[in-house]
Amino acid sequence: MRLDGFGIFVEDMASMVRFYRDVLGFEIKETEDTSNVYLVKDGTLFLLYGRKDFENMTGRRYEYVRGLNGHTEIALYVDTFDEVDEAFKRIVENGGKAVLEPTTEPWGQRTCYIADPEGNLIEIGSWDKPYEIKDEGH
User: Fold this and answer.
1) Structural domains for the chain
2) What's this model's pTM, rounded to 2 decimal places?
3) Which residues have a Cβ under 8 Å from the Cβ of 84 and sit 6 or more positions away?
């Protein structure tokens, strides 16, 4: 099996579309009143899936975490440490919830965490080198 995509089950599609499109820069072409969003981000399918639609499709009800969701994270990469700091500041100023301020970890990565409007964790990190060579030497 190969990884094809990653989905988030969404309660308020309009606010999530605005956040991922306008704040994080995901290329979402659907309108804010859509029920499901399918897009490819850096070669991986990314889905925002309406909870009610998914429940109707599967004929089941699910439990959803309120507040910060500690089950998963989405990791985004930037090329420089400065970009980690800039992204954190910009995202928090535009509605992201601050979870962990930018910090350089003992293993050499600079990282921070924010949460989207529904509490899903997003990491923004850097090894202070371009994405294409970031894993060399690890």
Assistant:
1) 5-58 (3.10.180.10), 69-133 (3.10.180.10)
2) 0.91
3) 78, 102, 110, 111, 112, 124, 125, 126
